[in-house]
Amino acid sequence: MLDVNLTDVGDFIVQNENKKILSDINTFKRCLISKAKTKEIHHIEPTLLDEYLATFLLPLEKSNSTDFEPCSLHGIIASVDRYLKRHGYGCSVMTETGAQYALTRDSYNEKKKVLRNR
Hints:
Blueprint: H1 6-15, H2 19-34, H3 46-57, H4 70-86, H5 102-116
């Protein structure tokens, strides 16, 4: 039997993560880097992460410059949530109530309405 530690478990999970989650996280990371924000996502305090996510969602388009479907935007946020949860972040972007991540939720909900009305 192999001697496996928590680092090995974490490495295994990261290597086998859903490719969509990794793609979504990398898209968000590129957005942060373009704004000279280099901290790992799970090390950003909730207030700032809320601002970064909200400003990330509004101009977000597919690579062919067309809009995402509302469910795809939700999927991107869900990917960020899963990533944060996996890194022990402690709060969820879409399921928190109150002020935490209110800006992201409101931005998402308004963009979803706009997209549905097009």
